[in-house]
Task: inverse folding
């Protein structure tokens, strides 16, 4: 079984985010595989262990993102592909990423029976790339899965729907996106880490792919980046209960503007 | 000169750190309190390849270097010094002499299961009357045909009781003094080999420390490690490398205590502001961080030398001496920063301070390290 995993390197979830000149400051930050993508990597390796085949991990990102591929390879993925879109600067959004991923899969002749992605990245949280990629490749997709079984070309998944579970049957080829609960990702073992460096890694740039820059240009624009407002101390109402209730309704209407 | 870890070393550190935080740290306080050795942690380390880091793949190891090994001991010790020394004794003291001096058959039979984490190793040198003066040991091994018969007691055996494979030292020819000492590999369960009392210790309480007893214990001559009379040299060379593991353990303990103290100093408010804003605390933190960094560099340097096949005895003695003292100082200051809370078992620094003390004592006291270092200096 040929398995592709699309992953993104993101800030370590425990990193403190700072903004400098309207951009998120990356200096000294620790980076990890996006946690949802890590579930996808784990599930891919489990599929390989069950059915044989090969796991290819693909990422789009700067040179540092190679580290995420190496980690996935240390966990058990067989080869990696990284596409550096430095030339595009900030002109990148989910549309761009999906287009580039689709082109990479096509042009690198990456055969696949199944594609796994995290359902979203913890940094921008768009949850779009997986479904967009499936559309471009003209294959079905199921998002936020918490269980995956493949037998022959039959695929059965359990999908998280706001706390409920949907049971869906489908067929290969397919793209699925991983929700928390799908599995418990393994640690990369030491022998795995030692072997990871020797596994093949393909480095591509935009020029290596047959893409029209205008076609893949971002369709959205980031107007402003800002940190959430600092949490202020809560207000405690005092006095007669009836008055308090009145004041609360007043505040909810005029200050919090929720009713 | 390069002061950056390779990509593999960084990945390994990350992996061990995550493993330590998720699988070791949560039970560290309880295991200390109840003096429990949890074999399942060792088993998991085996699955990840940590139990055979520096040995080649042919003998069941991972084929990484000694720097990888000290990084692993450091990261484990950062959350639990007992787990750190379990691995250190297993690799440096039990596995290393077999790797270095074992026959191919001994490597296959004893080193492979150690490397793969299927068996736990220990090392028996110290006796009631022979600590720093190791050559004064009384345990004897008398040749009897194809066997040796061992008699005597060894004390303070890390991993004792739980380990399956022991590298021990005994006198085969008393007339030759230290040149009459020989090394043996003994398996748990061998008739005449038993365990004595378990020590109740100040620190590293979830690492078992036992007495081991030989009472007419017959060992096949095929389990003699190296030649007759080579034992003292094997024991000393083993400790040269072992010191590096202890230096790493000390660095880890110090780092763990520093991390806790720094976080606490930022949170704890007195006189209307976090105590981290008091220069008295800031200076402590600056000194602690500087000492830890220096100890780490000495430790990594010694491990690097060993990985390169260069002489490392002096460097590892320096690393162990310095790092052990740093661990004691830093953990003491960490308790001081925590104040009264630091003296209680509500916070981990109390345990870390107790754990730190042993790093100045075992695998050669820090006084003996100074003897080792000055011997090198005078010879050079």
Result:
């Amino acid at each position: 079984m040929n398995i592709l995993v699309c992953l993104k390197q993101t800030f370590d979830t425990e990193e403190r985010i700072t903004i400098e000149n309207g951009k998120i400051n990356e200096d000294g930050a620790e980076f990890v595989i996006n946690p949802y993508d890590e579930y996808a990597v784990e599930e891919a390796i489990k599929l390989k262990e069950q059915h044989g085949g090969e796991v290819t991990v693909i990422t789009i990102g700067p040179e540092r993102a190679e580290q995420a591929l190496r980690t996935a390879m240390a966990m058990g993925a067989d080869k990696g592909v990284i596409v550096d879109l430095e030339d595009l600067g900030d002109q990148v959004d989910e549309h761009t990423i999906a287009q580039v991923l689709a082109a990479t899969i096509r042009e690198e002749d990456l055969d696949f029976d199944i594609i796994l992605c995290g359902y979203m990245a913890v940094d921008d949280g768009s949850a779009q790339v997986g479904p967009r990629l499936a559309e471009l490749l003209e294959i079905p997709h199921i998002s936020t899965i918490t269980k995956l079984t493949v037998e022959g070309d039959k695929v059965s998944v359990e999908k998280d729907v706001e706390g409920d579970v949907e049971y869906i049957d489908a067929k290969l080829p397919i793209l699925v996106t991983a929700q928390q609960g799908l599995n418990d990702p393994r640690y990369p073992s030491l022998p795995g880490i030692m072997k990871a460096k020797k596994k093949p890694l393909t480095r591509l740039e935009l020029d290596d792919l047959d893409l029209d820059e205008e076609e893949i240009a971002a369709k959205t624009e980031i107007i402003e980046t800002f940190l959430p407002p600092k949490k202020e101390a809560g207000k405690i109402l005092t006095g007669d209960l009836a008055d308090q209730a009145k004041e609360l309704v007043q505040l909810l209407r005029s200050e919090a503007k929720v009713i | 000169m390069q002061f950056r870890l390779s990509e593999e070393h960084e990945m390994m550190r990350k992996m061990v750190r995550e493993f330590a935080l998720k699988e070791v740290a949560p039970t560290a306080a309880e295991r200390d309190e109840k003096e429990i050795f949890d074999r399942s942690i060792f088993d998991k380390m085996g699955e990840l390849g940590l139990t055979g880091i520096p040995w080649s793949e042919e003998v069941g190891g991972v084929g990484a270097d000694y720097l990888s090994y000290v990084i692993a001991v450091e990261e484990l010790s950062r959350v639990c010094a007992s787990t750190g020394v379990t691995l250190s004794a297993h690799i440096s003291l039990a596995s290393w002499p077999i790797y270095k001096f074992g026959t191919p058959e001994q490597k296959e039979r004893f080193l492979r299961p150690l490397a793969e984490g299927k068996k736990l190793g220990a090392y028996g040198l110290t006796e009631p009357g022979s600590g720093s003066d190791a050559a004064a040991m009384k345990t004897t091994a008398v040749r009897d045909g194809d066997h040796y018969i061992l008699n005597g007691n060894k004390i303070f055996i890390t991993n004792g009781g739980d380990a399956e494979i022991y590298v021990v030292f005994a006198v085969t020819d008393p007339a030759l003094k230290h040149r009459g000492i020989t090394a043996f590999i003994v398996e748990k369960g061998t008739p005449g080999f038993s365990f004595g009392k378990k020590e109740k210790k100040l620190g590293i309480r979830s690492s078992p420390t036992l007495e081991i007893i030989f009472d007419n214990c017959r060992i096949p001559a095929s389990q003699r490690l190296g030649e007759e009379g080579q034992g003292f040299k094997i024991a000393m060379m083993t400790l040269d490398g072992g010191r590096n593991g202890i230096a790493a353990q000390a660095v880890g303990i110090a780092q763990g205590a520093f991390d806790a103290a720094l976080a606490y100093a930022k949170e704890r408010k007195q006189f209307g502001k976090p105590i981290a804003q008091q220069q008295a605390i800031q200076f402590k933190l600056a000194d602690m961080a500087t000492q830890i960094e220096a100890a780490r560099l000495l430790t990594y340097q010694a491990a690097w030398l060993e990985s390169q096949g260069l002489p490392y005895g002096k460097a590892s003695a320096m690393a162990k001496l310095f790092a052990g003292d740093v661990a004691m100082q830093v953990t003491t200051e960490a308790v001081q920063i925590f104040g009264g809370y630091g003296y209680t078992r509500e916070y981990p620094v109390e345990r870390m301070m107790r754990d730190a003390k042993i790093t100045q004592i075992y695998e050669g006291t820090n006084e003996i390290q100074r003897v080792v270092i000055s011997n090198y200096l005078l010879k050079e």
Q: What stands out?
A: Strands of chain B lie at 121-124, 140-144, 147-158, 165-171, 181-187, 193-198, 209-220, 224-225, 269-270, 273-274. The domain at 232-378 of chain B is CATH 1.20.140.10 (Butyryl-CoA Dehydrogenase, subunit A; domain 3).
